[in-house]
Design brief:
The chain is about 30% helix and about 20% strand. The protein has helices at about 35, 65-70, 75-80, 100-105, 175, 180-190, 210-225, 235-245, 265-285, 305-310, 335, 350-360, 380-385, and strands spanning about 20-25, 40-45, 50-60, 90-100, 115-120, 120, 140-145, 155-160, 165, 205, 225-230, 250, 295-300, 315-320, 340-345, 370-375, 395-400. Strands 3, 4, 5, 8, 9, 16 and 17 form a seven-stranded mixed beta sheet that branches. Strands 12-11-10-13-14-15 form a six-stranded parallel beta sheet, with helices on both faces. Strands 1-2 form a two-stranded antiparallel sheet. Helix 6 (about 180-190) packs across helix 7 and helix 6 (about 180-190) packs across helix 12 (about 350-360). It is globular. The chain starts with 18 loop residues before the first strand and ends with a strand. About 45% of the residues are buried.
């Protein structure tokens, strides 16, 4: 271990400073990102025998960091037991130090100095699900940077060996550090929940379609010959979605069927029912007369979930990976059980799926739209913009070093 280095200078590969700069969240200051995220000097994490130290070059901004800052639904410190938290679940960087046991492991093909990207899934690797089943069903599976103390918003971070993938050569540090969490999450949402998987001709409704997650949902659906329909909040965002492959868009601000489902039988519910039917007919205008979505990609939550469950096709699936507008979801149960609709939670994806998805990036079949790069000093503001829905279109990334 050597002394302290500036965030813009690099020691020799393998030489690890004692401390590093990091944006640290502490439980006593949970709140808006400009309050919660504070730059601190903190000890570089120890590299265990089966771990890898990464010098972070760029880190993606997504809702994991926002939820960590807000402390919602829980403080991330409750997941890992430390009194601090470094968020960030996407990164590109350089392998800086490899644990001793990995250096002698012939199955670990990376070396110090390699340029890599990092995915965020950390299963236990020893349970039956991790060995022959689905690691995302491992009861001890964690999301790096959300349920672990050391994430990407620091000069250095420590990861498990299976989290590392080769950096696509045609992408910059910023591009390659921005996409893996949202992209891999969408992959599993679209293709990981058989038999409700996206096929050629499938009709896919996508909420928040102009953001990073929505962008990839559009592109993946289009790639396999499905029909992605974007739900957005402005004409500008809608036209952007059409430019990347959506068959069209619906501006949600033209409707008022949002929020908690009103009590069934009430006057409010009667008015809601008229409005949500009008929303459903708007969808038919794109998919065909009385043709409803096969799959709805949800991550908005409280404001949109009742409408999603209503407009979904009989036998279709609402698949959700988050709840950015709130966690208390409501819906009309009769519309779900009587029409055999499926409500499916989805959380990132397994390593096999990640490699399949990433090959499309390496082969340049899925192109990235990294719309804005924030500086290191702007990291809290990047999350504030996300909280206030002021982010630019596409993926968002912070340049770390």
């Amino acid at each position: 271990m050597k002394g302290l280095y500036s965030i813009m200078e690099e020691p020799q590969i393998g030489v690890v400073p004692e401390k590093m700069k990091a944006y640290v969240i502490r439980p006593e200051r949970h709140g808006i990102p400009t309050v919660s995220f504070k730059e601190e000097m903190i000890e570089v994490p120890e590299v265990k025998e089966n771990e890898v130290l990464i010098k972070v070059k760029a880190a993606g901004v997504n809702h994991n960091g926002l939820w960590s800052a807000l402390g919602e639904p829980f403080s991330p410190t409750k997941y890992h037991g430390k009194d601090f938290h470094i968020a960030g679940s996407d990164a590109s960087g350089i392998i800086w130090k490899i644990g001793k046991s990995l250096k002698n492991n012939k199955n670990f093909s990376f070396k110090e100095g390699d340029h890599v990207i990092v995915h965020c899934s950390q299963p236990c690797n020893v349970c039956p699900e991790c060995n022959g089943g689905d690691p995302m069903k491992c009861s001890n599976q964690k999301i790096w940077g959300y349920e672990t103390p050391y994430g990407a918003f620091a000069e250095y971070t420590v990861v498990q060996p299976h989290q590392i993938l080769k950096k696509p050569e045609h992408l910059t540090w910023e591009e390659s550090g921005s996409y893996l969490l949202t992209y891999s999450t969408v992959w599993r949402m679209l293709f990981g929940h058989y038999p409700n998987t996206v096929q050629p001709g499938s009709n896919v409704l996508i909420w928040g379609a102009s953001g990073g997650l929505g962008e990839f949902a559009i592109k993946l659906a289009k790639l396999v010959g499905a029909n992605p329909l974007a739900i957005v909040s402005s004409k500008e965002k809608g036209e952007y979605c059409k430019s990347i492959g959506a068959i069209g868009y619906i501006d949600r601000t033209e409707f008022s069927c949002w929020g908690e489902l009103p009590k069934i039988g009430s006057t409010e519910h009667a008015e809601y029912y008229k409005e949500v039917k009008r929303f459903g007919k708007k969808i038919w205008g794109f998919f065909g007369e009385k043709v409803s979505p096969d799959i709805i990609v949800e991550h908005i939550g409280e404001k949109t979930f009742p409408a999603s469950c209503f407009v979904l096709k009989t036998g279709g699936m609402v698949v959700f990976c988050g709840a950015s507008s709130g966690f208390n979801l409501s819906f009309d149960a009769s519309h779900v059980w009587m029409r055999t609709k499926r409500i499916q939670g989805s959380h990132f994806c397994n390593t096999y799926e990640i490699h399949k998805a990433n090959n499309l990036i390496i082969e340049d079949k899925i192109k990235l739209e990294t719309s804005n790069v924030y500086s290191w000093e702007e990291l809290p503001q990047a999350h504030m913009d996300m909280l206030e829905n002021k982010n630019p279109l596409g993926n968002i990334v912070v340049r770390v070093s």
